[in-house]
Amino acid sequence: MRIIKRVAALILRRGIQTHQSRLNKNDSLIRVHPSVSQALADNKPVVALESTIITHGMPYPHNLSTAREVEAIVRAEGATPATVGVIEGEVHVGLSSEQLNRLASCQSSLKVSRRDLPYVISKGLSGGTTVSATMIAAHRAGIPVFVTGGIGGVHRDGENSLDISADLTELGRTPIAVVSSGVKSILDIGRTLEFLETQGVCVATYGASNNFPAFFSPQSGFISPYQVRNPEEAAKLIASALSLRLQCGVLLAVPIPEEHAAVGQPIEEAIQAAVRESSAKGIRGRDVTPFILQKVNDLTRGKSLQANIALICNNAKVGSQVACALSKQANEKKLKGKSDHRHGNHSSVSQSDVVVIGGINVDFIAKGKIKKLFFGQTNSGRVCQSFGGVGRNIADSLSRLGQTPLFISATGADSHGEAVFNYCKHMNTSGVSRLEGQSTATYCVVIAESGEMILGLGDMDIHGQITERCVSQFDKQLSSATLVCLDGNIPVSTIDYVCSFASSRNVNVWYEPTDSEKACKPFLSDTWKSLSYASPNLAELCAMTKTLGIPTPEVLPSSLDDALSLAVTLSRPLLEHLHCLVVTLGANGLLVCGEHDSGSVNLQPRIQKKRRRLCALHYPALTVSAEEIVNVSGAGDSLAGAIMVGIHQQKDTDRCVRMGLLAARLSLLSPHPIAQTLNSDSVNPDKVHAQDWPKPTFMWID
Predict the structure, then answer these.
(1) Residues 521, 499: Cα–Cα separation, whole Å
(2) Closest by CA position to 464, among listed 406, 407, 412, 532
(3) Taking the model in full, what pTM does it have?
(4) CA-based nearest residue to 362, from 313, 409, 319
(5) Average pLDDT estimate for 58-86
(6) What CA–CA distance (Å, rounded) separates 663 from 643?
(7) Structural contact between residues 368 and 380, judged by C-beta atoms closer than 8 angstroms
């Protein structure tokens, strides 16, 4: 009863802390996406993107596909995209895929400029942010670079109508760099440049020419005051402006790519016709630009839309390169003299051969001291705290065995998160996000004296924050990895993304299912065909094959022979695509299934997929008495981590498995999921005298 009370008190206390943190978070009307806030905290490049292009600039579905393409370009250049939009009265800096789709398909989204923000927020409305509103939100979030298509300007006859875009005055009072293709030719470009000068805005053309571009044309007939030729020059200009604290922006004008500039003349003719028609119909104010853009698209039969998309994508590429150069220069200045960190915060990130993506938990383990535990009364036992999570455990195991894996995960910005980072100082945690308003995952388990788990209780919601966007920040590290390990706790969409990405780059993926319910995640689609390795137990293997529609028994066999027979049978269809399966059998050891090679199973990554003869090897577990078992939560993860190390070191299958079995035994004897005594010597079969290493049993897989 004391154990249950402790668990209940912990959960109650955690619930109060979480509620309070969410109340504090709601004090702000600007919501920064976790991936954006983490990138900013780590001094990594972030690029802000507006959303009126999505809501008012293009028809559906071109708007949605363009928005996603632009974000993909930003990520490919090494920066984090932060699309800004208003959702039900809250300004979001960084939108989820669902929010992007919502804005793109909504017919009633408003066009939100500086003046509109108070009203839209007070009414709880949604809309796309213009240049001015995006600048405000991006600056509030601490983002120095913002990419758009073209900014607004002084309208023709603006000297009489005073129709001047709020974009210009915003540039005069908000210190942020705006990357655009100049201004549209429907505006008075000369007066626009004059107005920008009055506002104190530094204007520079990017590239080989100093001609100020006019959106669809690289030349407007006007010259920019300044010129920067590359990302480094642009970054130095922006850094100088920000350092001077002039409280005004920088406009970087990027000409449309040359291959798309040829269509500029017919588009200009269509623009003039559209301007005349809008004037004749009495269209005014904010309705002018959408009308003209739609009319021009109709007159040019879509060519203007194609050119529009091309220049926006080009701006995203240039802006991301500038943001990366700006971030690099800032980090080099900050870390001058520290050559081991010359690329920013985490030099070890680029050196990782293995990437592990999965969960972190703070574990509370209660083990009974009597043979039978009784509910409803106090039982004698021992309670200890440790640090687990399947992904963390595997990364910990790899780290203690001489590897330097990049670990990608998420914790809350709370006391448990602090404790995790303090404990994991021996690991590369540069890929772990610390999220405000979220609770670090906790896991409470009650274990009988025999080592059998009686009850488990987990608060794992934060694992859902290990999203595609979170992982995509490390695409370069994923591309260069020899192995990526996925923990089944992460979302299905993240698993799909990583597998697709890895498959396109011939990177091997190891899937650790974690439990029967999560085992099926890659098998809900063809994603599983991109896996190279998987390490399920027998119940998880059944869940995998059942998901694929393969006949699977509802009740697991009780005898070892029947269990081995079932495991071999169910492994066969999976090995049509997977390279190898490591089926764990608890106290009965493990079964390694894969390609036959000289009387054994070939664990080394295959060079090419081809038909092969399949076999299996059953290895008995090392003997551990029930009285010796302290913790069962990390044995499988220790086993998997040690086998991965053996594969990386190109050991033969027998040595790989023995390393895994030794690591698993150390885990069972330790209060921690991964034994602190785990090292290369402790899992070296030649240095550790395991009593009479049993010879594995060989089986063919028909």
Answers:
(1) 12
(2) 412
(3) 0.53
(4) 409
(5) 91
(6) 9
(7) yes
Identity of the amino acid at 153: G
| pLDDT at site 334 | 59
Place of tokens 């998420």: 410
**Are residues 618 and 699 in contact, defined by beta-carbon separation less than 8 angstroms?**
yes
Q: Over the chain, what is the mean pLDDT? A: 86
Query: Which of 117, 194, 198, 182 is closest to 154 using CA atoms?
Result: 194
Q: Are 356 and 371 in contact (CB under 8 A)?
A: no
Give Rg (Cα) of the chain.
Answer: 30
Instruction: Answer whether residue 683 shows pLDDT above 90.
Output: yes
Question: Following DSSP, what letter does each residue of 89-110 receive, concatenated?
Answer: TEEEES--HHHHHHHHH-SS-E
* β-pair partners for 456: 445
Backbone angles phi, psi at 477, to 5 degrees: -70, -35
Is the distance from CB of 511 to CB of 534 less than 8 angstroms?
Answer: yes
| Mean pLDDT computed over 98-125 | 92
Distance CA 264, CA 271 (A): 10
Where does 524-673 have alpha helices with state H?
538-547, 560-574, 635-648, 653-668
pLDDT tens digits along 377-412:
888 888 888 899 999 999 999 999 999 999 999 999
Classify domain 43-332 at the CATH topology level. Indigoidine synthase fold (3.40.1790)
List the structure tokens of 430.
Answer: 């540069």
Q: From CA 228, how far away is CA 655, in angstroms rounded?
A: 58
Answer yes or no: are the C-beta atoms of 203 and 225 closer than 8 Å: yes
Domain regions of the chain by residue span: 43-332, 347-701
Question: 583 φ, ψ to 5°?
Answer: -95, 115
Mean pLDDT of the region 150-154 = 89
Q: Are the C-beta atoms of residues 599 and 625 closer than 8 Å to each other?
A: no
DSSP state of 53: I
Burial class (CB in 10 A: 0-12, 13-18, 19+), 502: buried
Percent of the chain with pLDDT over 70: 90
Paired with 145 in beta bridges are 47, 177
Q: How many CA atoms lie within 13 A of 224 on its CB side?
A: 28
Alpha helices, DSSP H only, in 129-225?
A: 131-141, 158-161, 166-171, 189-198
* 615 bridge partner residues: 594, 700
The DSSP bridge partners found for residue 511 are 486, 534
The residue type found at 308 is N
Query: Is 459:442 a contact under the CB 8 Å cutoff?
Result: yes
Of all helices (H) and strands (E), which one includes residue 15?
A: helix 2-25
In angstroms, the CA 406 to CA 427 distance is 8
Burial (CB count within 10 angstroms: exposed 0-12, middle 13-18, buried 19+), residue 11: middle
Q: What residues contact 617, with CB distance under 8 A and at least 6 apart?
A: 591, 592, 600, 601, 653, 657, 696, 697, 698, 699
* Residue 57 DSSP symbol: I
| Tokens at 399, concatenated | 């780290």
Half-sphere exposure of 99 (CA within 13 A, CB side): 20
For 181-218, letters b (16+ CB in 10 Å) and e give bbbbbbbbbebbbebbeeeebbbbbbbeeebbbbbbbb
Q: Is 6 helix (H, G, I), strand (E, B) or coil?
A: helix
> Residue 612, Cα to own-chain centre: how many angstroms?
36
Task: Sort 564 into a burial class: Cβ within 10 Å, 0-12 / 13-18 / 19+.
Answer: buried
Backbone CA torsion sign across 189, 194, 200, 203 = positive
Could you give the angle at the alpha carbon of 238 between the alpha carbons of 233 and 243, nearest 5°?
125
DSSP result, 285-296? GGGHHHHHHHHH
- Specify the DSSP element, H or E, that contains 460: none
Nearest one of 112, 135, 123 to 52, comparing CA atoms = 112
CATH of domain 347-701: 3.40.1190.20
Catalytic residues: 50, 184
Mean per-residue pLDDT, 619-635? 85
Q: HSE (CB half, 13 Å, CA atoms) of 557?
A: 13
Q: Do the strands 483-487 and 697-701 form a parallel or antiparallel pair, or are they unpaired?
A: unpaired
